[in-house]
Amino acid sequence: MRTFQWSAFGSMVVSAVALTPKELIAAPRRSEAVPNPSGEVALFSTSEYSWETHATSSWWSLLDLKTGKITQLTNDSNVSELIWSGSSDSGLLYINGTNAEIPGGVEIWASDTSSFSKSAYKAASLPAPLSGLKTAITKSGDINFLVYGESYANGTAYNENLAATPLSSARIYDSIYTRHWDYWLTTRFNAIFSGTLHRKRAGQGAATSYTSSGSLKNLVAGVKNLESPSPPFGDSSDYDISPNGKWVTFKSKAPELPRANNTASYIYLAPHDGSKKAVAINGPDSPGTPKDIKGDSSSPVFSPDGRRIAYLQMEDVAYESDRRTVYIYTVESKETIRTLAKDWDRSPSALKWTSDGKNLVLNTEDYARSRLFLLPANAGDDFKPKNFTDGGAVAAYYSLPNGEFLVSGSAIWSSRTIYTAKPGKGVTGLIFSANTVDPALRSLSSSDISEFYYKGNWTDIQSWIIYPPNFDKSKKYPLLYYIHGGPQGAWADSWSTRWNYKVFADQGYVVVAPNPTGSTGFGDELTDAIANNWGSYPYDDLVKGWEYVRDNFDFIDTDRGVAAGASYGGFMVNWIQGNPLGRKFKALVSHDGTFVADAKISTEELWFIEHDFNGTFWDNRENYRRWDPSAPEHILQFDTPQLIIHSEKDYRLSVAEGLSLFNVLQERGVPSRFLTFPDENHWVINKENSLVWHQQVLGWLNHYSGSNGSVSLDDTVVPVVDYNP
Ligand SMILES: *[C@@H]1O[C@H](CO)[C@@H](O)[C@H](O)[C@H]1NC(C)=O
Ligand SMILES: *[C@@H]1O[C@H](CO)[C@@H](O)[C@H](O)[C@H]1NC(C)=O
Ligand SMILES: *[C@@H]1O[C@H](CO)[C@@H](O)[C@H](O)[C@H]1NC(C)=O
Ligand SMILES: *[C@@H]1O[C@H](CO)[C@@H](O)[C@H](O)[C@H]1NC(C)=O
Ligand SMILES: *[C@@H]1O[C@H](CO)[C@@H](O)[C@H](O)[C@H]1NC(C)=O
Ligand SMILES: *[C@@H]1O[C@H](CO)[C@@H](O)[C@H](O)[C@H]1NC(C)=O
Ligand SMILES: *[C@@H]1O[C@H](CO)[C@@H](O)[C@H](O)[C@H]1NC(C)=O
Ligand SMILES: *[C@@H]1O[C@H](CO)[C@@H](O)[C@H](O)[C@H]1NC(C)=O
Ligand SMILES: *[C@@H]1O[C@H](CO)[C@@H](O)[C@H](O)[C@H]1NC(C)=O
What we know:
By secondary structure, the chain is mainly beta. The protein has a domain at about 440-715: Rossmann fold. Helix content is about 15%, strand content about 30%. The chain contains 11 helices and 40 strands. The longest helix has 19 residues, at about 685-705. The chain is globular, with a radius of gyration of 26 Å. Bound molecules: 2-acetamido-2-deoxy-beta-D-glucopyranose (9 copies). One 2-acetamido-2-deoxy-beta-D-glucopyranose binds near residues 367, 387, 388, 390 and 426. This is Dipeptidyl-peptidase V. One of its GO terms (molecular function) is serine-type endopeptidase activity.
């Protein structure tokens, strides 16, 4: 048996050409690959940005899983979502983003891979911009489907094009959650709608075709305060349809609790035809609910025989980063829901059944990667699942008829990898990797990165190292210290279009990206130790990491070092600015970080601060104030040039935080700049904004570190407002 070398994905030669921000932003972005029933071909989409037309183009392709050959299926921009219909190996369904009769509505069309546009026909008209198509074929050969979108309070699907414009812009609230992430709450909510495509009785030899009355049932609206998918990030992974099309399962936040100060959510079960109201299977009144398990539920999936639902749940009612455990519920049974591998110190984010229904496959963060693990469906609580993938980060996976899984992932050196892996065996074959195809990524490889462990404050800490082009360890490169957000999060071996390690390294730095106290994927102890310790252990872990780099890597120049971080990483940069570590850097960048300790109460997800500062704002105020970057004794130490970025639609952490810090730095005479986007949230997504973000961040760091990187502050065409005398 040939053993597969993960490193064989790359060319083992450190990249020779720099990856620029423009190339990163414009480079193809590919979706996950979804195999057809026989596992011969997989479907995926690609989108690409053009700096000439300033527009994104996108298309759908088929990937031959044997040969790796890619053929374009369609680039019609009306095809907004494309799935296998399941009725044959070539049958497709798609959401057509326009509707011939209803402005703002969409249509479901059916087609075939063999002659995409020739065989396409309309199967259903939907009255609103619905998406997230999931289907199952019923006994009679019909296709039961699910889609989701916004719903009016009365259960009707919301269509912006047909909605009346209110006369006043006022918003009025009587309950917490006024706004969330980047939107203000309204009386509308996310809902799952069900419908049926009826198989037409065709004459002998005629192809199967489908038609629909277009009538939809809102499966969520029947119970007050249910909402699914859960905003802001919920999508079709929040619901599933049983293989026979009869049942639907979905997650919703607990309807009986205030939304903003707890994380409780339940898994619901409802008949697809909407004949009965949705019922919680693990709610406080459900017969099988395990004792004292009250946290966030997620990822419900039906077993292949439709008789069981596997899902994940956290224990704590107000801790968003608590460990997720696997549960199995038997449909319409009153037995207590079973836990699997409860003692396993990992927190899976997705699960799937193997096609024989005997095992589950879990995707979980694991030592700064994300890996697939096999878990028998009858495992006890002491079972320790084994991984069968290794490097990179798994994004999606589908079971193939031969018992393998088709995995879509990414790595620091590739925006998309597609490969097969088999439980008990490991990676069995590479089918696609973007760095071997995309010109801008062509010089990237697994040898652009390495990792090390060092002694932190109270435990060993892992860190990535990312090398610049033509890296030569006899030379010296300025340090770029990368500080991650969360704080419950991790720098992983994955691709990012916002904090891409290679784009930063390729400006002439060695990027060091440590995973200090608070980081996820190394077990609960490291993650949970962040509570009430925002500025203590992690700060000391970062100091010790910096000293380790200074003492152990001759090729890293810490005298010309710079540091950058966002969100919690932004807070940490602000904290570093007013502490001794701040004096070790030539420049700092903080993106959306808190500054004034007391301002944390203006956030939306109150459970987050009430967990991390162990109590309410009034009972435990000293916890909130303990690590306050705005305390006078810290402000008096501010001395390192700092770029502050904070955008207006960041409702997690209001823009006032960035403005407050800028006022102080300017009055203290510390070189500083404020960058803001009126239309961006906690992240900068728009491609043109992303370019400016990169120019300013990299330009700032290059200017003060004296690095010879190609990006400069002057690259930005937006005028700088400066009334300094
Ligand atoms: C679609 O692809 C065809 C053939 O490659 C090309 O001529 C056409 O310009 C593309 N259309 C769009 C909208 O990208
Ligand atoms: C999408 O459909 C609309 C409505 O038929 C049509 O006007 C438009 O040209 C279509 N777009 C493309 C790219 O074909
Ligand atoms: C999308 O729907 C519109 C309106 O029915 C139709 O004109 C167009 O041909 C459809 N396009 C595709 C790709 O299905
Ligand atoms: C639900 O409310 C919307 C907005 O007020 C309205 O347009 C729609 O007709 C209502 N639907 C029903 C079934 O009453
Ligand atoms: C959450 O908020 C509600 C009011 O919306 C309040 O009754 C409850 O005590 C709060 N919970 C905590 C833990 O503060
Ligand atoms: C599982 O992960 C370990 C690292 O913990 C790795 O060494 C091993 O190769 C992985 N197993 C497979 C089959 O990929
Ligand atoms: C760990 O960090 C704490 C809080 O900053 C500090 O008091 C302590 O001395 C550190 N321990 C070690 C071993 O450095
Ligand atoms: C958090 O608060 C609880 C109850 O007030 C207390 O028992 C616990 O020790 C506190 N934990 C920390 C880390 O302060
Ligand atoms: C940039 O600096 C690095 C490290 O000192 C050096 O190897 C490289 O040749 C320099 N590049 C240019 C274009 O000066």
